[in-house]
């Protein structure tokens, strides 16, 4: 059943309209995004479970064991890689996470629906708005607090796995365009975060090590451009790149993004061109996303989220810290307001309306979900204030509180919208013809 368009003249004649915001994409892209969302949802459940386990463990009689495991040092000292397990998780495992995020971002902009500039403009500017406003709110609320400005980037991040896991639970019937928007926004957000980490959280810079990293990075790029998949060739080069970036003083997770951007997205002409099937980037993404979602991020959460709460008094004391207030307000208020404002400006200056299936309440709900900072926020907190410092503990409590608050508020908004879309879904018949493509995609 075709729904009437809102864009008609008084005489029921259709009028010209601009490109709609969040319009339905292509069917192949919808299938691919659906597959990614299922994997990230499982990862999100594991992430939340690991964070809860870390909190319980760190506030139990066995908290000393938790701290000894997290602070246990392993690795070759001669390479300056004698790091604690917590640091290995933040620097090493999260490099896998950022490698997968880099592959996804490149895939979207080279071969996905976002290669259309008009389509890409919305999530990119929304991500930028969701970075700028939280940072401004944080800086405003922490003005005059010595050293607080170091943490300005903490409330700018969005946790992909956590947010998508929540969305899967509360918004099963929300349109695919909204899920795609949240996924793309979060990936762009992660790229901005890695640039911020590289530029603003590098204490010292060793140019010889950084320039040296270009050698294995270049060899890795040469091999993947020739479509080499052999792990015994690529893994040592990737490890060498990561080691040299780590030695340079730049946060080692930057290596993950640099490596990802060298991987080709489409097949070469000799292999049949773009229409011959998935390229090397999608191959690597398919192989590594389960490792990222099910191992790398949950282990990082287990080793990073364990903070002693100190009971009600300790919790109240932590959340009265201006830095914690700035983080909390930046994530819960700054994220949705920044995303909403940026999206509205796109609509205002491009004369585009929301797709006729959607409402601005949906954008608000997604903006609230983006306030779940967690993984990257915890990482930036450690970089800004030092692991195990009192301020870092306050930041962890603020990030956890903000994530819970953002989840609750997003649930209130999106559950109502989910019921609306469920009724639409039940009223409409999305028939699958023999070609296996829903009619609504063919109609468009």
From TrEMBL:
**What parts of the sequence cross the membrane?**
41-59, 79-100, 120-140, 152-174, 181-201, 207-224, 291-311, 323-347, 359-385, 397-416
What UniProt keywords apply to this chain's record, in alphabetical order? Answer: Antiport, Cell membrane, Ion transport, Membrane, Sodium, Sodium transport, Transmembrane, Transmembrane helix, Transport
Q: Where in the cell is it found?
A: Cell inner membrane; Cell membrane
Membrane topology type:
Multi-pass membrane protein
Name the predominant localization.
Answer: membrane
| HAMAP family, alphabetized | NhaA
Q: What is this protein called?
A: Na(+)/H(+) antiporter NhaA
Origin species:
Actinomadura vinacea
List the top taxonomic levels of the source: Bacteria, Bacillati, Actinomycetota, Actinomycetes, Streptosporangiales
Q: Which gene encodes it?
A: nhaA
